[in-house]
Design goal:
Elements (H helix, E strand, L loop, with lengths): L9 H12 L4 H7 L4 H10 L23 H12 L15 H9 L4 H11 L10 H9 L5 H8 L32 H5 L5 E8 L6 E7 L5 E5 L5 H12 L9 E4 L8 H8 L2 E4 L9 H10 L14 H12 L11 H5 L6 H12 L1
Parallel strand pairs: 1-4, 4-5
Antiparallel strand pairs: 1-2, 2-3
Helix pairs in contact: 1-2, 1-4, 2-3, 6-7, 10-11
Amino acid sequence: MGTNYKHLSMEERTMIQLGLEQGCTLRAIALSVQRLPSTISRELKRNGWTNPATEPRRRGRPRVAGGYRATVAQARASELAATPRCPSRLAMDGPLWPLVEDLLRTRHSPEQIAGILRRMHPDEPTLQVSHETIYTAIYVMPRGALRSELIACLRQSRKSRRPRARGEDRRGTIPDMTSIHDRPAEIEERRVPGHWEGDLIKGARNASAIGTLVERTSLFVTLARMENASAEAAVTGFCSVLNRIDAQRRLSVTYDQGREMAQHARLTELTQVRVYFADPHSPWQRGINENTNGLLRQYFPKGTDLSGFSQDELDAVAWQLNTRPRKSLDWLCPAEVFMPESFNFNQHYHQLVALRS
């Protein structure tokens, strides 16, 4: 007999009925269907069976097998299996669904939403759900406009859940590079803020680009508008956003070996930010930035012309990412960690709830 319990099948219930009609004991029936005797006993009690040996004598024809019928038992089991034992916490007419739907539409992931609910209602388990519950609620919805809209809000917008695939990064060569292996230990340990990872996300036909910078300690994101993917545009774009940040919070940038960083010495001269370069074909050395670029593709899908986005629009997208709780920060927001004096989590999310009501 297996260790993992499975519900009784129609064939097994039929064998139980035949065994009862032949006067077999419960242990003999259990052996014939390779089940525990307790399983057979519970099945019979659930379906109104009584032991003829202990049942008081009655006039007339005795009931066959105590009245157990395999077809009736199977129908009852199927009906009960389709009926939840308790109402779903994410029922559409419940208190949680409106907030969950709003957060999905603002591109929060199900895991982030689960973290938000835990922080908003730490002492009320009934107002918390797991990220798996949220995924299930989305994918079991009947096909229609609402289901399609919510799936489109997920990171990869898959019609069904499956592992994501990654492609290879293209690398170039840069003169006078300082290798990532020459970075100070404090950068690798991520204990001191002010050290960033950078990259470009490119638009249709690689004709447009947006610069991305992620602070390694807080995961704070900054986006830079660029005219194109050239080295000149990269210096101009990165300088414009780096110089908005306090000098003590912009100490270094770790970049890949893309040709847009050919003028890294000029970038250092204009911003005082040291530039380190990762090894070729080693995206894991800048894993924080790689992950962030994946999140940004929700806002800037591949094949999109990125030249039409203003710096204000890019700042708004970055702020959405910076005010989302992150699992690696123990569900703090990047803005809380990077600029604690300016961002209040409770105020931000309770304002969001107030806007709905």
